[in-house]
Amino acid sequence: MSIFPRISLKPEVTEYLKSVFLNKEVLTAVGHQEAEHRFHKLLSCLSHPPSYTCVRASTHLAPLEEIRQQLAEELRKQLMCSSSAEEVSVQILPHPRIADVLILPVEGPRPVKQLGSEVVVGAQCGGAVLRGAHVFAPGILGSPKYMKAGDLVSVFSDLEGKCTRGATSFQGKKVFVGNGVAEMDRSTIFCTDEPARGIGIRMVEPLYRSPSFDGVLPSLAFLQNLPSVVVGHVLGPRPGERILDMCAAPGGKTCHIAALMGDQGEVVALDRIRNKIDRIRQNAQMLHLQSVKAHCFNSTLSVSSDPAQETEGPPFPPESFDRVLLDAPCSGLGQRPNMGSTWSLKEICSYQPLQRKLFHAAVRLLKKGGVLVYSTCTVTLAENEEQVAWALDTFPCLSLVPQEPHIGAEGMPGAGLPPEQLRLLQRFSPELSWEQTEITAPLPCRADSDTIGFFIAKFLKN
């Protein structure tokens, strides 16, 4: 159900996206009216959260049913502490096709009454609240002048990034995301030498209710969007292989690959930001995975010019890996919920050259007969289907191969790819089912379509 305004974008970005979704090939395939309808549904659904929470279970450590039962018990305790209801039940269902996924329904939108005291948070923080998070102090932009710990406040998300940090009131574009209790005084949040840390507002009446996973079974239950879990299965890692994750932070997919291999083999994770490498190592340690080797390195430079080089870390000799995951940096326009983006069109379109540099390195590092999976969390043609068309043209050794599981839609027309190749691509397109997948439909039916926007292509190096 649509209760929020459509995602707030700069006009030039909206027009660009419209040209993508109303390109000539799409118009020929579905007609102008349907194409325009899909585009407007996309703008609406992006500002809303999916109707479920997806959890990747650490089935390398315990059976799925055992994890499901432990998770239900932990969340039941959490709800009993925050709910006055006599009976507290938690619905957790296994995904029908993906053996290490559990899905939980999100309750909402709920009838929550706005209060007089308003706290304003950034759009990213507001999105996290809609998916079950509390408000952490760094996300707070404005609060009432005399706010004290214990005060009941309404939380609003700043749509256009115009609220000044420390504001006592804000009249710009904002949306209500729920009510909470202040855990800190205003002075603690804004008037200290060191930036405030920890929970600033504990949400008690969120507009969309879903469990908080903060500290809940950290080694057994890993919050991850469903398409991101699908990527690991599509890559198809096998025990004993050497696999490269080129843009690995924060390490969710890296650890999933290692788990799917039974922690037998080597998963090399690269990222160019040092503290993100620490996060990958922490995640691997928490999930008891020994096969992950993380290095701080620029993946565009990860191919060694010396084929005889024998080092554990990057750069690597050509054809060093059995499989490569290129989960590329992208414009992120498929993320949900996303209330608003202040990015310019230049910023949105800046990723294609970087993605191609990474592609060049990935193909060189892949062994003959190896598998390359390319993925993004965006909805543009330039970063998805156009990159596939470019890669097939640039690297004659690459060919598209079927994906398993294939639960998303096929690729979008517009990049000149023939229908048989579009069918091999996997594009998660929430706009195709937005407001059609009724809340009364069985949860597993909603789970495959009510996702973030995401794209996956699988190549074989011949």
UniProtKB/TrEMBL annotation:
Residues 146-462 form the SAM-dependent MTase RsmB/NOP-type domain. It holds the Pfam family Methyltr_RsmB-F. CDD domains: AdoMet_MTases, PUA_NSun6-like. PROSITE patterns: NOL1_NOP2_SUN, PUA, SAM_MT_RSMB_NOP. S-adenosyl-L-methionine binds at residues 247-253, 271, 327. One of its GO terms (molecular function) is RNA binding. The active site is at residue 377. Keywords: Methyltransferase, RNA-binding, S-adenosyl-L-methionine, Transferase. One of its GO terms (biological process) is RNA methylation. InterPro entries: MeTrfase_RsmB-F_NOP2_cat, MeTrfase_RsmB-F_NOP2_dom, PUA-like_sf, PUA_sf, RCMT, RsmB/NOL1/NOP2-like_CS, SAM-dependent_MTases_sf. Belongs to the class I-like SAM-binding methyltransferase superfamily. RsmB/NOP family. PANTHER family: NOP2 YEAST -RELATED NOL1/NOP2/FMU SUN DOMAIN-CONTAINING, TRNA (CYTOSINE(72)-C(5))-METHYLTRANSFERASE NSUN6. This is SAM-dependent MTase RsmB/NOP-type domain-containing protein. It comes from Astatotilapia calliptera (Eastern happy).
